[in-house]
Amino acid sequence: MRKTVLLIAAMAFSAPALAEEYENCSITPVAQVGYIDTFKTPGECVAACKKTEGCDSWSFRPHSFDKTKPGACKLIKGIFKKEASKRAFCGKI
Fold first, then answer.
1. pLDDT tens, position by position, 39-72
2. Residue 42 CB coordination number (10 Å)
3. Average pLDDT over residues 11-22
4. Structure pTM?
5. CATH ID of 19-92, from 3.90.1150.10, 3.20.20.140, 3.40.50.300, 3.50.4.10
């Protein structure tokens, strides 16, 4: 029993969790400098923002019901409003 508990605890602390890596929020942009609808992870959206001139923040909303399908990535210049979200992820570069 003790080995099982230790194994579960070790897995919980060592496995990367999508929700823990990115903030659950949504951004209303001052200006949008790009939109990509082929990404499946927030990490792809972050990488695209870093490569896009003028991008200082990003917002990613996964597909609503099928995680194997791509979501929507907004590349943003300037944050007008930032709100908590249960479905979307966002961040500042």
1. 999 999 999 999 999 999 999 999 988 888 999 9
2. 23
3. 50
4. 0.75
5. 3.50.4.10
